[in-house]
Design a protein that fits this description.
This protein is α/β, with parallel strands linked by helices. It has 2 domains: 116 residues, Rossmann fold (3-Layer(aba) Sandwich), CATH 3.40.50; 173 residues, NAD(P)-binding Rossmann-like Domain (Rossmann fold), CATH 3.40.50. It contains 12 helices and 12 strands.
Length: 313
């Protein structure tokens, strides 16, 4: 009898045979309605759930899955997985930290370049038959601040050095294995940055870390990029700062209520917006799904999982 995995993720269908070929039976439920129906209909047979941070898995859903043993999260973030409920049930949680870091870092740099060099507006003007030239800043010699120096932050820093930028960072604690300058607070990091990239996990611990005061510290010539979670930046404060030119611009791949994007953001000319695609590449998708398969195979053969998420005491 094969093990049944409930798949809530909507972007990896081409790579799901990796899991099926490892001996697992999949139930696909990528929409809220399909998710609720699958849990109600197949709850007795589901032993594993594949999800991602924004989709999560909640306590009431776990309660409706009496044989649930493991939750595998694609990507690093697991902010909407109820870890307390998982611990109470004895459910193992894994994530995909680091697997998609190159793709996310590439996208962060692409957003930064597009924003600072004003590529979208330049492209649009040429398509309209115009030939307007605007002076824009260079990246060389600028100061890059990274909020969150995990695997994604490290990959961004590596790329930044290739553009002749200096790198500073803020973490919960300083790292002793990097040459980059540590800033003790988020505000201090903003003051030390021309460009500010958010690369920290979401969740209650990082909610609105970037607020009005931080944006004011970044200043009218500063640019901000978010490829992490929308909750890390106060959206209201960000929109206000952009509207009143208290910062120079923002590039965002994540939003509070995806796929809904505030009209106020879409109306601004000093923003670049993408639909939460930073972690999407063939290499990243294959790697993350392979890690899920490896974690499932390890767990159901009685071995330690490869990438466990610490559960609260």
């Amino acid at each position: 009898m094969t093990t049944t995995v409930l798949v809530l993720v909507e972007t990896i269908n081409d790579y799901l045979p990796i899991i099926e070929n490892s001996g697992f039976t999949l139930i696909l439920a990528p929409t809220p309605a399909e998710r609720a129906k699958a849990i109600a209909t197949h709850g007795e047979q589901i032993k594993a759930v594949l999800t991602r941070g924004p989709l999560g898995l909640y306590a009431d859903e776990m309660a409706a899955l009496p044989h649930l043993e493991i939750i595998c999260v694609i990507g690093a973030g697991y902010e909407h997985v109820d870890l307390h409920a998982a611990r109470a049930r004895g459910v193992v949680v894994t994530n995909g930290a680091g697997v998609n870091a190159p793709s996310v870092a590439d996208h962060a740099m692409a957003l930064l370049l597009s924003l600072v060099r004003d590529i979208p507006r330049a492209d649009a003007s040429v398509r309209r038959g115009e030939w307007s030239k605007v002076m824009r800043p260079s990246l060389a010699g600028k100061r890059l601040g990274i909020l969150g120096l995990g695997s994604v932050g490290m990959a961004i820093a590596k790329r930044a050095l290739g553009f002749d930028m200096s790198v500073s960072y803020h973490n919960r604690r300083p790292r002793n294995d990097v040459p980059y300058a540590y800033c003790a607070t988020v505000g201090e990091l903003a003051l030390a940055s021309d460009f500010f990239v958010v690369a920290t996990p979401g969740g209650a611990g990082t909610h609105s870390l970037v607020n009005k005061n931080v944006l004011e510290a970044l200043g009218p010539d500063g640019f901000i990029v978010n490829i992490a979670r929308a909750s890390v930046i106060s959206t209201a404060d960000l929109i206000d700062a952009l509207q009143h030119q208290r910062i120079a611009g923002a590039a965002l791949d994540v939003f509070d209520d995806e796929p809904q994007v505030p009209d106020a953001l879409k109306a601004l000319s000093n923003v670049v917006l993408t639909p939460h695609v930073a972690g999407l590449s063939p290499q990243a998708s294959q790697g993350t799904v392979q890690l899920v398969a490896d974690n499932l195979l390890a767990y159901f053969s009685g071995k330690p999982v490869l990438t466990p998420v610490p559960l609260p005491v």
